[in-house]
Specification:
18 strands; globular; SUFU-like_domain; single chain; Gyrase A, domain 2
Length: 404
């Protein structure tokens, strides 16, 4: 591809080449394109979304395969993303990924352009707006508790049990590296609420593995069927017991999530480049994140592990047990709270503090809606050191009109 002024299209070309290895018979796929590109002042962040017809395989049904163009650097001239350093072998192109989504085709559908559902394009642009606004980078193993948003994008009556998304690596599209940096293809996989909860108990990869074993849940290509009426636990009756036994034996393998949360302290330079101790930290969670916190107290921290929340505003909260010995741990039993600017907070929870958090907050597991919020809990450590946890409505985490 070329353009007036001979601008670089190396980013676009590499995505096209990756897709062409899978779809050699579809070199000119249907594309949803923004009328006014983001770098020309348009509101949609992605330049293009290519839509391919995929025949499926023995375990996965026929489906539409949506592939984004724009999370990574398409042009290499700084019009959207900062140009990666050619001397950095670990540099990423733009945000370092593109998103994909596989949607099961209705049996009566042909391959005509008129029958391609366009709501997934709205979903992908929606997520792009969130990423561009917050700077958040998705990773394989993340999950997105979407609530009413996904059903409403799908249909006017929201008639689907698929409410949430898991993120994994696309099974067909391979990552690549150019002089603009590395790019991987991350696939969105729709799931039920109870499947999301199970992923929060163990990890996303374990639920993805279960999905891949059955055609009804997408098979090896992980095709999302918005009309699915059975959860993986209905399809595989002993799946829940398998997960429970694995967690009891090994603890949760879920070490990091993207969630609605934030933290704040007083009188700290926001761009400080060194960790420093503080005596008080205010943590804020929505109800979903608070429930995850309760789970990881039992399945991670009591077992001598750590856990990281990645927040909406590009902060992170790392909870660490006294038995954890990973590199990069700055806290200890004396200095239990350490922060790096306003970006990273590390908090060591001793066994007594884990028990106290569990006792004070256990009732939130039974809360089904947000009518009882806000809630506030104070966890005293020692020598006037404390952690304050507030639980607020998820709507209060909106950023510039983007609800996560």
């Amino acid at each position: 591809m070329t353009e007036i002024g001979d601008r670089s299209y190396v980013g676009i070309n590499n995505i096209v080449q990756a897709c062409s290895k899978i779809y050699s018979d579809q070199l000119n796929p249907t594309q949803a394109t923004s009328l006014v590109k983001y770098w020309l002042g348009g509101s949609e962040c992605l330049d293009y979304i290519s839509i391919y017809h995929n025949q499926g395989n023995d375990t996965s049904p026929t489906h539409w395969h949506y592939v984004t163009f724009g999370f990574s650097d398409l042009h290499g001239d700084g019009r959207v993303h900062k140009v990666a350093s050619k001397d950095d072998p670990d540099s990423t192109s733009g945000y370092g990924f593109e998103l994909t989504f596989r949607l099961r085709k209705a049996p009566e559908n042909s391959n005509s352009v008129q029958e391609i559902p366009l709501w997934p394009c709205k979903l992908l642009q929606y997520l792009a707006k969130y990423v561009f606004k917050t700077g958040t980078q998705f990773r394989a193993g993340h999950h997105i508790p979407f609530g009413h948003v996904l059903p409403n994008l799908y249909s006017s009556d929201g008639n689907t049990h698929i409410h949430d998304l898991l993120i994994t690596n696309d099974r067909q599209l391979k990552s690549f590296r150019t002089n603009l940096g590395s790019v991987e293809f991350l696939q969105l996989v729709g799931c039920f609420e109870n499947e999301l909860e199970a992923a929060q108990e163990c990890n996303v990869a374990q639920i993805i593995d279960l999905f891949s074993t059955n055609r009804k849940t997408g098979g090896t290509l992980l095709v999302t069927d918005m009309s699915r009426r059975e959860s993986i636990f209905d399809i595989i009756p002993n799946a829940k017991q398998m997960i429970r036994e694995k967690i009891e034996k090994e603890g949760s393998q879920l070490g990091r999530v993207l969630a609605r949360c934030s933290w704040n302290v007083e009188s700290v330079p926001p761009n400080d480049t060194h960790f420093r101790p503080v005596t008080s930290i205010d943590l804020t969670f929505d109800l979903d994140a608070a429930k995850i916190f309760l789970k990881i107290l039992r399945t991670r921290l009591r077992r001598g592990k750590w856990f990281i929340f990645d927040s909406l505003n590009n902060q992170s909260i790392c909870f660490i047990s006294i038995a954890a010995n990973n590199q990069g741990i700055m806290v200890d039993s004396i200095q239990q709270i350490m922060i790096l600017g306003m970006r990273e907070a590390q908090i060591m929870l001793l066994p007594d503090h884990i028990d106290l958090c569990t006792d004070l907050m256990s009732h939130i597991s039974d809360i089904k809606d947000e009518q009882t919020l806000p809630l506030r809990y104070e966890i005293p450590f020692h020598t006037n050191t404390k952690m304050i946890i507030s639980i607020i409505s998820s709507n209060e985490f909106n950023h510039d009109g983007v609800e996560y």
